[in-house]
Amino acid sequence: MRVDILTIFPKMFRGPFEESLIKKAQEKGLVEIKIHDLRKWAKDRHKTVDDKPYGGGAGMVMMIEPIYKALQELKEKKGKSRVVLLTPQGQLFNQKAAERLAKLDQLILLCGHYEGVDERVREHLVEEEISIGDYVLTGGELAAMVVVDAVVRLVPGVVGKEESLKNESFSLTTAGGKLLLDYPQYTRPAEFKGWKVPEVLLSGDHQRIAEWRRRKALEKTKKRRPDLLR
Questions:
Q1: Fewest Cβ atoms closer than 10 Å to its Cβ: which of 16, 147, 184, 230?
Q2: Which range of residues forms the domain containing residue 105?
Q3: Are residues 215 and 131 in the same domain?
Q4: Reduced to 3 DSSP states, what percent helix, strand and coil does the chain have, rounded to the nearest 5?
Q5: Closest Cα partner for 107 from 188, 214, 4?
Q6: pLDDT, tens digit, for every residue of 43-80?
């Protein structure tokens, strides 16, 4: 899978993609992540990518021309590709969206900024708009990092034990298909300061353990995220 990120602040991405699973995924050749400075496609000597909005108003708007030129150059002609704009106005990002995007051959992320992008970018150049929450960030860079992290870990081969992806929050489901949060996890020691690991997890009875985990996942979801069960 190839991920291309269009941004006016490429230095922001130096750290997050050079650590942990994402670094290993790139070293294994499972994922290729490219950070592109949008100013490269600006036509003037000042590398201008924004301008005042028509009709007046506060702030600046990202221009369509540099974005168009960048996408024309970056979008691969074969394979499944998708252009996504990171914006507070987008659809709320979730695990199902991550699973869908992880099946692409190429994912292009456009980081919004200022007062947003020229509306014609939305109308003609991007295929999807994503928000990571009902709040406003200074730009789409942090949102792009979140999306990449969530998507890359779902690419086959990135996570060593595929089974662990099936038994985590938003992957577990009820019989009716409702999403569940993950069940409680424990490790050594079995007792610490009088706080004990539930006996069932030490029993070796796999059926009882599975039933306990299922029940606890349902209880946790009902308590913390009842909206998932409605």
A1: 230
A2: 2-152
A3: no
A4: 35, 20, 40
A5: 4
A6: 999 999 999 999 999 899 999 999 999 999 999 988 99
